Amino acid sequence: MSEEHFRSKNYMRYLVVFLGIVALTDNSLSLIEQVAIRPAINEFNISLSEFTLWQGLVGIFSFFVFMISWLGDYFGRRKGMLIQILIMSIPALLIGLIGPSSMLLFFILYGFMIMGTNVNFWAVPISEESPAKNRGKLGASVFLIGLLPFYAIFGENIAENLGWEWTFGLFGLIGILALIPWYFMYETKKWEDNQEEFKQSKDTFMKSLRLISKANWRFILLSGLVYICWSAVFKFATLTLSIYFQDVQGRTADEWDSILTLGGVMTLVGALTIGQIMDRIGRIPALIWSSGGSVISYAMLAFTGSQIFAILIYYFMASVLGYLLVYNAEMLPTNIRGIGIGILSTLSRIGFVIGPLVVSLIISDEVITARSESSFEMLYLLGAGIMLIPLMTILFNRNETRGMTLEDIDKSYSN
Fold first, then answer.
1. Which whole-number Å values give the CA distances from 245 to 252, 258, 301, 307, 343, in the listed order?
2. Rounded Cα gap, residues 340 and 98, in angstroms
3. What distance in Å separates the CA atoms of residue 117 and residue 329, rounded to the nearest whole number?
4. Four-CA torsion 243, 56, 315, 364, nearest 10 degrees
5. How far apart, in Å, do the first and last CA atoms of the chain sit?
6. I need a surface site. Which of 28, 174, 186, 203 has the fewest CB within 10 A?
7. pLDDT per residue over 9-24, tens digit each?
8. Is the pLDDT score of 232 beyond 80?
9. Cβ(360)–Cβ(235) under 8 Å?
10. What is the pLDDT of residue 292?
């Protein structure tokens, strides 16, 4: 077993909290649309289909996300974190300040904001600074903080008292305030040990791509497929569940708020349990559990319309993401970890574009009523079918990393 460098326990506690704040900002800006979408549609006087069409089109902006992770490889993890914080937080704050003045301006700011969300670059420093035996737990801890359901608990109150635009703006402000703890972050030891290699081999982006081996590319493409499925199908839920339960089923705003809050809590439970499953049983069983549960939850929501399965969607989809964040950071070697995660984040953007466009096509009613129920059922059944694809990737990748150091993973699986 290779010798690892570990930071002090106090530093690791600080790192978990700081990266957790970044992850919290990231996750909240990604999920707050569940609260903002209905009042935004009303303010701009457009249909759900029109809103999701625009959202899919501006999602093309987000394909430039790979630059964040590449710069994190070239200039270091510390500067990479700074870039992510600024890119996602400044547009979000501007949405709060000026977003409602123009629908076009809102979507442009939204497009820039999502360049910085769901990058999950925070997974790189926590992975590189953690000991092998606790890597899954510490990574899941950051993920857990990021999943605190502030968007569900406070979102409706923010929208009612300050306006829907400030559901984005206030979380953008939290991101900017995260620059205070960022100041105390050290560069990761693994990046410092490899920075000369980085400087010699990363004069251009294309040179850095040449460092990726065939085995690395095979893993990136398979994991990228899982990411695309996850991001597209989770968009089905975040864009439609609010409207499905209130406008189709006729639930009250308070009832929907309870469903959303319980769903948010279940994302926390998902983060806790997936970390334990990964560390105690293994990474591949964690994928089977989370993806298989997602398939069942979407299918049963379509067949029954029960809020129980909507809540379980949050649990299992959070588990899928928890698995991806830990496993991807482990399987990619240190010298391409940032750019590899950047490529995976870029691939996930395909889902962020496809998801809203599919919603726009399937749920095309100008006014959503109880008669629209069959369209929502079709969407959720499609989501169940798409989430079968991650299970099929196990046929091509069964590499297990539980309990292994990053160096041993690199030696075993990267060539």
1. 8, 11, 11, 8, 36
2. 35
3. 17
4. 30
5. 18
6. 203
7. 788 889 999 999 999 9
8. yes
9. no
10. 95
Task: Give the Cα separation of 85 and 26 in Å (integer).
Answer: 9
Instruction: Please name the residue that has the structure tokens 């065939």.
Output: 214
The owner of tokens 């969407």 is 379
8: left (phi over 0), alpha (psi -120 to 50) or beta: beta
Two tokens, residue 239: 């864009």
101: part of which helix (H) or strand (E)? none
The reported pTM is: 0.80
User: Token pair 């992975």 is at which residue?
Assistant: 127
* Predicted local confidence at residue 400, as pLDDT: 73
**Token pair for residue 32?**
């707050």
Long-range Cβ contact pairs of 190-197 (< 8 A, separation 24 or more): 190/5, 190/128, 190/129, 190/334, 190/406, 191/76, 191/77, 191/128, 191/334, 194/334, 194/335, 195/76, 197/335
Q: For residue 41, give every residue at least 6 positions away whose Cβ sits within 8 Å of its Cβ, in sequence order, or none.
A: 47, 48, 51
Alpha-carbon distance values, 269 to 96, 256, 266, 272, 356 (Å)? 31, 20, 5, 5, 27
Region 92-108: what's the mean pLDDT?
91
